[in-house]
Design goal:
The protein is α/β, with parallel strands linked by helices. It has 2 domains: 182 residues, Crotonobetainyl-coa:carnitine coa-transferase, domain 1 (Rossmann fold, 3-Layer(aba) Sandwich), CATH 3.40.50; 63 residues, no CATH class. It contains 13 helices and 9 strands. The strands form 2 sheets. A 6-stranded parallel β-sheet has the order 3-2-1-4-5-6, sandwiched between helices. β7 and β8 form a beta hairpin. α1 packs across α8 and α8 crosses α9. The chain is elongated and about 75 Å long.
Amino acid sequence: MHSLRGIRILTLAVNLPGPLAVARLRQFGAEITKIEPLGGDPLAYAKPDWYRELHDGIEVSRCDLKTPDGGAVLESRLASADLLITASRPAALARLGLAWPELHINYPRLSHVAIVGHESPDEETPGHDLTYQAECGLVAPPSLPRACIADWAGAQEVVISALSVLFDRSKGRFAQVSLVGAARKFAEPLSRGLTVPDGILGGGFPGYNLYRAREGWIAVAALEPHFWRRLADELRITSPTREELETVFLERSPEDWEAWARERDLPIVRVR
């Protein structure tokens, strides 16, 4: 899959959303160069192996873009790039001469996808995945999120926006990706009532739930009527209630129930 072969992308984006997005664009065949601050990308210190994996095939250099030498490096890279990806707040970009109006004048064929935390007029508000998820109702204290939903959702939006602005390269185009906005899309099942505590995907339907088994837990997703009927038939329960299923599933281990379900083409797995 090399639909972006010949496309040159410059990224200044560190942490997760930017590297996740450019790794995908690299898989599409784009030529990626990255300029990191002198201190490097925080991801490289938090998870070195993952950083190396995401930057495989990407040319990475470090410099201080606030210095004359750093500015010269940036100008050289911009002059040869088709797309710029950033993950800084607008004020920081403006200080580097990368505000879109100025950038578009200086490099009219260059497109720009800017990752921000919040939509206008709150682009300067600081945040990270945790705060974005919390704003969207995706955090259940005191537990921290087990997945970086805002970062992953934002990365997908960056890829989509990049493909969109690159579709017509006769002139540069600008797109902004809000991480809290991306997370809000992932939170739509909650806002629509599907995953609230009594919603059909939130515990309101016995066939779609978590159950304690012997020495562990299982996830049951017999959501469609044919799965639900088959589960009831196989368990020999006419119309299973949550309480009846709780009793039955305690009889076997999670591994046994997973094997049992596989033999019967039922969506049940052990919780790992």
